[in-house]
Amino acid sequence: MTSLLSLTGIAKTFDNGVKALGPVDLEVQQHEFLSLVGPSGCGKSTALRVIAGLLAPSAGKVEFPGGNPETAFVFQESTLMPWASALDNARLPLDLKGVARAEADMRAGRALERVGLGGFEKSFPRELSGGMKMRVSIARAIAAEPKLLLMDEPFAALDELTRQSLNDDLLKLWCEDKLTVIFVTHSVYESTYLSSRVVVMTPRPGRIAADMALAAPENRDGHYRLSPEFTTQAAKVSAALRNAMVEHA
C-alpha cells in the first residue's frame, strides 16, 4: 500500500494551557478506512482538524508524501446553509472552485442521488430530517471528488436505524470512489463495522494506545453485524479502549 499521509510527533496545546494531543505518530495508507476511537476530550477531533489544516500543531509535522490530496470534511453538525436548497448546498465546494454552473449542478445532483436524495434537490434544510441533512452534508463532500474524507462523529446525533443506514451508504462510497477515510467516533461497534483499521487513543493528552488492523470483508452489510466475526472484532476494540482508559487514567 502507498502512504497518503503521515503524522510525526504531532502535539497540540491550546492557548489556555490545555494539552489536548500528543505526541502522536501515525501513518495512513491510501484507501484505508481508519477510525479514531477514545474517551471524550482525548484529542480525536483535534487530530482530525490538524490533518485538515484547520488547526496548526504546537509541535510535529503533517506530511502528504504524494502531494496534498483533494480533502473534504464532514462535521458532527450538518452545517448546511438554511436559505439554500439541497442542490445549492451540495454544489457549494464546486462554486468555490469556480466550476461552471451547469457542470456543478450535474455533479451536485449526482452526489445527492448517490446518497439517496434524488428528487430532493429543491428541498430546504428545514424540510429535511436529521439523517437527510447529514446526507446532504456527505453529498457536498463527495461532489468535490475528494481522495481524503475526514469525518468528525457525523452520525452521533442520529437514531440507530438511520445511523446504520448511513454507515452502509458510507461504506459503499468508500469502495466505489477508492476513498481514504479518517473517521472519529465514540462507538466501538460503529468503528468495528466501518473500519479496516482502528486507532484507540488515551485520555487527554491523546496519544495512541492501540493500532489495530481489522479483518472484515470490504463489501459488508447488516449480516456482518450479526456475525461471530464482528462480535470478536468488537470485543478486541472494546478491550483496547478499556485498557487505554485504565492504564492512562
Q: From the alpha-carbon coordinates, what is the Rg to the nearest angstrom?
A: 18 Å
Annotation, overall tally of beta strands: 9
Between the first and last Cα atoms, what is the distance in angstroms? 35 Å
CATH architecture of the largest domain: 3-Layer(aba) Sandwich
Bin the strand percentage: 15-25%
Secondary structure: helix percent = 25-40%
Structural class: alpha/beta
Report on the structure:
The strands form 2 sheets. This protein has a 6-stranded mixed β-sheet with strand order 5-6-7-3-8-9, sandwiched between helices. Strands 2-1-4 form a 3-stranded antiparallel β-sheet, with helices on one face. The longest helix has 20 residues, at 228-247. It is of the alpha/beta class and 249 residues long. The two termini are 35 Å apart. The protein is globular and about 55 Å long. The protein has helices at 44-52, 86-96, 101-114, 130-143, 160-177, 188-194, 222-225, 228-247; strands at 3-13, 19-29, 33-37, 59-63, 71-74, 148-152, 180-185, 197-201, 208-213.
Properties at a glance:
249 residues; alpha/beta; Rossmann fold; 2 domains; 39% helix
Q: Which SSEs are present, and which pair or pack?
A:
Layout: E1 3-13, E2 19-29, E3 33-37, H1 44-52, E4 59-63, E5 71-74, H2 86-96, H3 101-114, H4 130-143, E6 148-152, H5 160-177, E7 180-185, H6 188-194, E8 197-201, E9 208-213, H7 222-225, H8 228-247
Parallel strand pairs: 3-7, 3-8, 5-6, 6-7
Antiparallel strand pairs: 1-2, 1-4, 8-9
Helix pairs in contact: 2-3, 2-4, 3-4, 6-8
